[in-house]
Amino acid sequence: MDALARAVSAIDWINRCVGRVVAWLTLVTVMICGAVVLLRYAAGIGLVWLQELYIWTHAMTFLLAAGFAYLLNAHVRVDIFYARLSVRGKAWVDLLGVIFLLFPWLALIAWTGWTYVSYSWQTNEISVQNNGMPAMYVLKSAILGFVVLLGLQGLAWIGRSLLVLGGREPPPAETLTGPLG
């Protein structure tokens, strides 16, 4: 059980690091979008690649920070019943939810995404717009990053649930305001 607790902590650490780095893409997105607006309306300059770049950073933020959001419990949860459950009841819901809802959904995204991403890499895909962003495969690869990071965090929630069901205290989860304990 100690190894399981260490594995949960390691996965949490990975998503915490990725999430904190990726969170800066929100600021980058706003700055690029502001630059696009200023260039377009103040200087009459339109740069397609710059317009696409803020779409890329916005997409990357959501795709690569999903595991971090799940770590923080910042995902959408219909907790009409969940909030009233005991700690063990919540552990069962989390365990079964990850196994029967999250993992099949991620498997479907991985299966379809792999074809989509690998084709983009094989063809060295670029934007369909003139003077658009090159290396479209980088953006599309974030889909697989989403699957990996969210899948890892799902494994961490399974580990947390198993620790609770085994009578052990899991590593503290986090919220948007800090660690729970």
Polypeptide structure, described:
The protein has 181 residues and is mainly alpha-helical. 72% of the residues lie in helices and 2% in strands. The chain has 5 helices and 2 strands. It has helices at 2-42, 48-64, 66-71, 87-122, 136-165; strands spanning 174-175, 178-179. The protein has a two-stranded antiparallel ribbon with strand order 1-2. Strand 1 (174-175) and strand 2 form a beta hairpin. Helix 1 packs antiparallel against helix 5. The longest helix has 41 residues, at 2-42. It is elongated, with a radius of gyration of 20 Å. The two termini are 19 Å apart. The model has no long low-confidence stretch (mean pLDDT 92).
The major beta sheet can be summarized as:
2 strands, antiparallel
Distance between the termini: 19 Å
- What's the average pLDDT? 92
Radius of gyration of CA atoms, rounded to a whole number: 20 Å
The run of helices and strands is HHHHHEE
Q: Spans of 5+ residues with little confidence (pLDDT < 50)? A: none
* Share of residues in strands: under 5%
Structural class: mainly alpha
For the biggest β-sheet, the strand order reads: 1-2
**Global morphology:** elongated
Estimate percent helicity. Answer: over 70%
According to DSSP, the number of beta strands is 2
Number of helices: 5
